[in-house]
Design brief:
Elements: H1 2-20, H2 25-28, H3 31-46, E1 52-55, H4 57-66, E2 72-74, H5 87-93, E3 95-100, H6 106-116, E4 121-127, E5 130-131, E6 134-135, E7 139-146
Parallel strand pairs: 1-2, 1-3
Antiparallel strand pairs: 3-7, 4-7, 5-6
Helix pairs in contact: 3-4
């Protein structure tokens, strides 16, 4: 009986939790929405599968999971790379670089972008999740799109 009541009340529980923790981007950030938007952006520009996503592991793992293309992760400034993608792959297949605009590692990532892909298309995307009319935290992402090699 308790399970049925919890199931029935779960949308309101979620809305209440989101309102109480409105600034909790780790839990309530709309990363799946970002993955969907980036996948659509890649397909619109290149009419091909999005193969590589670059950035910090905690930022790009949701892109790998939620995008239907499941791009391979590339972590340029981390001591332990994922091992799934090489710099040659990044240059050959193109990539979308994603970094949280509030991340302290942003300057290092932007330096890597300027060295690796100085002509990258740059944009800022903002995502926000809503539950029963309650707004979750807005998250801004610096995004860099680099097409496949010709």
């Amino acid at each position: 009986m308790l399970s049925a009541a919890t199931l029935a009340g779960s949308p309101w529980i979620a809305a209440r939790e989101m309102a109480a923790n409105a600034g909790n981007t780790a839990t309530y950030g709309a990363r799946s929405d970002l993955a969907r938007e980036l996948t659509q952006a890649w397909h619109a520009r290149f009419a091909s599968r999005w193969a590589v996503v670059a950035g910090t592991m905690e930022t790009i793992q949701p892109m790998v999971f939620y995008s239907p293309d499941h791009p391979s992760p590339f972590t340029p400034n981390e001591a332990w790379a994922s091992g799934l993608t090489s710099l040659d792959d990044v240059k050959r297949y193109g990539f979308i670089g994603v970094v949280d605009a509030a991340d302290e590692r942003l300057p290092k990532f932007e330096k890597w972008i300027s060295e690796t892909a100085p002509n990258a298309e740059r944009m800022v995307m903002t995502t926000r999740r809503f539950t029963h009319g309650k707004a979750g935290p807005a998250m801004s992402w610096n995004v860099y799109i680099v097409g496949p090699a010709k």
